Amino acid sequence: MTRNPKPRRGEIWLVNLDPTIGEEIKKTRPVIVLSSDDLGVLKIKLVVPITGWKKHFEGKLWHRKIVPDAGNGLDKISSAEILHLRSVSYARFVTKKGILPDDELKQIAAMIAVIVEMEI
Predict the structure, then answer these.
(1) Is the pLDDT of residue 107 over 80?
(2) Taking residues 21-31, what's their average pLDDT?
């Protein structure tokens, strides 16, 4: 684990998501930090876990394809697992991998709004 991590909105970090229960997404994997950098005093962040892309994810609102590039630090075509949105302690953050472009971050936030049936 990184000592004193300071995850920021839009960054992609490896995070240890274990232990989990049931169908919660498991293991140490990349996540996208979503929460504002200006919120609260608790050392937690709202994150969206990332998993490898699979063909059957196509067209599903809770999967957002992410293509690897030098900026995001991913090594394969991936999916933001939006239904697995969760808050995690800074203690779970392992290492920073990269950053997601602002337009992609906004698309993920918009998909969350659709999933929770929020009118935009």
Answers:
(1) yes
(2) 92
